[in-house]
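Our working data are protein records whose layout never changes between entries. An example says more than a description, so a record of this kind follows.
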Amino acid sequence: MRRLTEMRPGQSTALFTSDLSVNEFLLVREAGFRPLGMVLGSSIYHVGFQLGRWSKNQELETLSNAMYHARDLAMTRMEAEADVLGADGIVGVRLDIEFKEFGSDLAEFIAIGTAVKADEPGAWRNNRDKPFTSDLSGQDFWTLIQSGYAPLGMVMGSCVYHVAHQRFWQAMGNIGQNVEIPQFTEALYDARELAMSRMQAEAESLHAEGIVGVQLLSLPHRWGGHTTEFFSIGTAIRPLRADHHIAKPQLVLPLVDS
């Protein structure tokens, strides 16, 4: 807390830290925001155990809740650090998971980004009175602001799902044939749909117009071949103004010595 307080604008010892690249840093400044400092949140979480029926497609709700809650703790603590700096938002957020050697069921959930403050006062914080968060690159952030949109926050959805095993005679009957495995298709479709719908529900609670930069990831972690996590994440956005000036892309051909 002392380190963050000393980094607040106006302090005699204030300096910023940032994990943005040089190009990203300059584009964030061009967009009208100045970096205040790197902020992070961490949660070392014990992921519980849950049995799934061998022959049934089903969500493992205990694991789904654990994976979501751990990420939420890391994000909330990162936002709290940004609040201490007096930030309007956090850009370039990375949300990572690292399984530790302390135990096979222990994982560290880490959220890291660069807290920024707008040069001109404005309503940049979201409807929860928290700094906005965004995992967009500095280039994408600049383009978003220039086009008349603003980030509200990173939104996410998680679903840990157990995929049913095939019965012995069914598996034997599929040998050497091109054939769809219906229970596998249905399981993966349902799991993705649950993750996406939960992410969309978070965006709706922020009163967002849409979500950009969505990633839909399949993360096996350490649960074995028939259990996987589908995790969706993106940046919820809102319009800044009614008229959106969208720059036309320019074709650039690099000249390479032959």
Summary: The chain has one domain: 1-239.
